[in-house]
Amino acid sequence: MEIRKGQKVWVCIYQGRTSKIEETIIEAVGRRYITVEACKKKRFFKNTLGEVNGAGESSFIILDIEKYKKDKYYDNLIDKLKKFTWNTIKREDLDKIAEVIRDY
Question: What's the gap between Cα 53 and its chain centre?
Fold first, then answer.
């Protein structure tokens, strides 16, 4: 996707242990870096969309918020399945799950 000045994007801003997603506009696109209106003091790498930051969790630019939300949903679902206590599930339900994942 081409990145251009004035384009609407979202930025995931990390503050301490929390993060927030904020809608913003691309302010400038240089040869290597991007700046956005929401956080003028931060620069983002053009090729990775990650913040130019040497420490901690880096903020990043999101070009497609719907794709990002869908990816986060499936990441959380996979984590939930990894931590699930499988011995509490009914055998009939387990058979249904096995049928779904048999081809994978």
Answer: 17
